Amino acid sequence: MTRNEEKKIGKMLQSIVNQKFHGKYEIIIVDAHSSDNTRKIITSFFNQLPLRIIDGEGKGIGADRNIGGNICKGNILFFTEGDCFLNKGFLFELQRLFRNKNLMSWSTITFPIKSSGLIQLTYKMYDVARYLLTKIPYPFKGYSTSGAVLVIRREVWSKVGGFQEGTNMNDDGFMGRKIRDHYRGKDQFLFCISPKYPIYRIADRFNDGYFKTLNHYIYILGNFFPFLLHYLKNQMVYEGKRFSHEKIQ
């Protein structure tokens, strides 16, 4: 998924080139009508990567993710975002992990680069909470999946109906709930904390101010405490004026 990612998308695509991964794969970029040089940068990688660019339909982040999931040909779907990039060896690790036929879905930590210690600590606390949530017995067990890194078998993605569509920003978090409910009582979802293979992110979303940004993403608490969802529903809706890079077109 991209929208006006000219300062980041090149780093993401170059990180895939640097994998030197020779397995069969495809890259689908769903672009929400970027008005900067995002597409120009993407097309410069056409001779290095198996790339396709698809237009988003302006129906929200979840809908854009579903566009990519619906048209891809592979059996393992790896969803990420335009401000992320991969550590070397990441795709080899995914290939190795999914040789385990019982592994239905996988995630890992997100590490913000060029960020303050406070921002890095915030991400670490979030990832620790996500990990601990998977260790709680049913019916309290949960999966707070992240749009930065969600790897899932096509059969599972299809069975749960893909991502939630609409203006709700927590489509990635709701995906974890769908997976949990579908495999209730089973341990077929592995949430892996592997510092060796993190997803790196350019966390400039905090440029608007730490506490202002944190307040915007407070809806994430609903992934850990479902009873809060009713009170946080207004936080989950796109706020285009404050966060124009996430506004639906």
Essential attributes:
10 helices, four-stranded mixed beta sheet, 14% strand, Spore Coat Polysaccharide Biosynthesis Protein SpsA, Chain A, single chain
Give an overview in words.
The protein is of the alpha/beta class. The protein has a single domain, classed as Spore Coat Polysaccharide Biosynthesis Protein SpsA, Chain A (Alpha-Beta Complex), CATH 3.90.550. Helix content is 35%, strand content 14%. It contains ten helices and nine strands. It has a four-stranded mixed sheet with strand order 3-7-5-8. It has a three-stranded mixed sheet with strand order 4-9-6. Strand 1 (27-31), helix 2 and strand 2 form a beta-alpha-beta unit. It is globular, with a radius of gyration of 17 Å. It starts with 8 loop residues before the first helix and ends in a 17-residue tail after the last helix. Mean pLDDT is 85; it is low at 239-249.
